[in-house]
Sigma 54-interacting transcriptional regulator
Amino acid sequence: MKSLAIVSYTIESVNSYYNQIKSLFSDKITIKTYTLEDLGNYGDSEIKADVLLFPSYHLYKQIKSKVNKNTELLFAHRTISKSGLDTIFKLDEGSEVVLIDESPEMAEQIISIIYQLGARHIELNSFWTSNADDFDKFIILGQSDYTPKADKEIINIGNSLLDINSIIDIGMKFDLLSLLDRQDVVRSYKEIRTANFGFLKILGLTNSRESQLDILMQNIDAGVIGVNNDGNIFLYNENAKEIVNKEQVLNKKGSELFPEIPFDYTIESLKPVEEKIIKINGYDVVVSVNPLLHSRKMYGAVAIIRRYSDLEKKEYMLRKKLIGKGYTAKYNFDDIFGESDSITETKNIAKRMSKSNSSILITGETGTGKELFAQAIHNNSLRKEFQFVPVNCGAFPESLLESELFGYEEGAFTGARKGGKPGLFELAHNGTLFLDEITEMPMSLQVKLLRVLQEREVVRLGGDRIIDVDIRIIAATNKNIKEMVENDEFREDLYYRLNVLPLKIPPLRSRREDILGLVDYLKKSFKSDFILTDKAKEFLVNYSWKGNVRELRNCVEYLVNLGLRIVEEKDIPVDYSVKAFDNKLVSTEQNIIYEFLEQAGNNLKKYIFVLEELMSGGRNNQRLGRRTLSEIAKNKDIFISEQEIRTILLNLEKYKMAEIYKGRSGTVITEFGKKAYNYLSME
């Protein structure tokens, strides 16, 4: 930190100057104080300071030997206080007064100041050029060794003060003009009378304009850094300080402090730099630089900087206002009811998937809660603060779906909204786009969706502007999408883009232990307390529930509206032609079935085919081998290879559903296999 040494004749004047400087520059300057008497005891040592402040050249000459030749010098512009001037104005007109100061030079300076301030009703004389014995009235500034001892009238107008010129000089020497807050300067000089009227008037006008500019700079929601033609910083608002985290930058080279900001390019080329992303303090910052030109004259350049994350949040808030509150995810994983192993494992997998940004493909029968899982995944992800935008691909005709997804410019087609409309890809920026019934998307749109997933950019219909989007795609379907790919009904490349993280939602019949708990959960949501008989409970647990949780919900809602206190089996609104599962499975058998379903996956139909043929062979006392089963499949136009049949038979044996005999003795179905077949054939 630079240091300033104040040298004066008396301790009172030294302290007066010290207090003024300290109040304005706080602890930004190290201040040392010396009186002439102090320096008399200083020996031959030099005063150690970067800048020396003297009240007069006369004093400097007396201590010149103690001043280092590299030390900068300031000679004070002095003035008097308002109260001191008021005291002088109270003197009788025509009074002859002697002014006493520490040197002839200093006395003449103060006399000229007093006259310039308007006190011309008295005759002022310098102590150094007058005969003191001829006068009765003396003006002193604070204390003085020259005060008359005789019976004279002494008028003390207080210590002299540093005029505003000296304060500005000090600010310049220490690069601290930015600390001279305009209000503080004006407040400090309310009690000080300056003779520099022109400067004071200009300061008043400038302060007014600069205060308005300061208010604007501090309220603008961006960082602003301005440099002059020499590349030195003259403007630096609070937002810029917060973003770049640097103090004391004024009057320093902008290109050296902030090499990432292209100030030099703009000053040299007179060309603006449009918004670009740079790194400052590890943050992505968006910066633009524009030349300061007026009347074809260059005055420097100004940079506007914003943290990229702040810009993204602002854009998000604007989007949120634009689209309202419709696109939010309401459900979390706690809203997904069930304690069975299958649903618990599915939730655990989904939670792990939520932390990724990769695309998710959710498969499952209708009514299993695919959108519920999609919303829970979004709300458990890093994108939860942004939009969750669902779109049902089967609910729109092709042309309308395209305009909904991609948006359009004004005039893109007949009936297009004036001003255009942003698409759902744009509205989901930084959030999640949920494409339900993805298999209903037309092939032509599948191509465009694939491009969005690859390039992360969209172009509105009728437009040519590329819009960058950062979205996560969650797609869902209740169809066998893999089979559709094999039949050329869905693009293979898009399937693999979507199926990065596959999530299969188990049907309700594969987690029967959750059924009665779900009934109680749904009863509470409908504020009902009906009671199920044991027969009704048994029927609900063993019913096939083709519509899954949605069908169960409809069933409960129906029972609630019946208003019955006791619900019997006959009251349950289901199709009784769909027979409930007669062969009851014990708990251990149910667990084996649930585990088997996970193993079978999309090949479940092939397993059921093999079990059915083993059942048929058992009725005829036949053991069937894989070659025989392969021939039967071929005759029934079922595509299943002999190797696949071998794998299926091994898995059926693993789950106790079949028994394989050695050699060419074939395979037979077990009793548990028969029960499993009856259960699975209802799916």
